[in-house]
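Late entry, written up from scratch paper. The run itself happened at the end of the previous shift, but nothing got recorded in the book at the time, so transcribing now.
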Amino acid sequence: MNIGQASRASGVSAKMIRYYEQTGLIPRAARRDSGYRDYDKSDVHRLRFIRRARDLGFTVEQIGDLLMLWSDRERSSADVKSLALGHVERLRAKQVELEQMIDTLETLVRDCHGDARPDCPIIEGLAEGEGIHCSTVTREAPRFGVTSRPASRKKPLGISPLKPG
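Output as recorded:
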């Protein structure tokens, strides 16, 4: 089957199938005379395994470890259990972090009047860090930045409302 058919059968996008090939999670597909990739049922089965693992939040590296364990019939189930328990611990730590973020945002939102006045505890809290709980978890670089300002704002970018301290 071609990559589109494998994608539909496995629930993994064609783009991700190519990525998984590139990273070695799946072996390079056989090629037809036309140059198109050719997948079989075992490839689709492996892709479904990967998709289920990704749905549970496993990283690509962890999925590689799971795939090695899956293909090793001499493995110990204790090894698989250990990997899964480690993942559960990381998920619980993320859960605590998310709950802290929610609590902080709910507090900031509760303190905000949400009216036409410019005073805003949410902005002030973000600027001052008051009530913001920082985590020890390393964060990824921000994906989004401020690209525009609301039309009602007349203050030019680069001028800080904070006073030097």
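Helices lie at 3-10, 14-23, 41-55, 60-71, 77-111, 121-128.
(Scratch paper discarded after transcription.)
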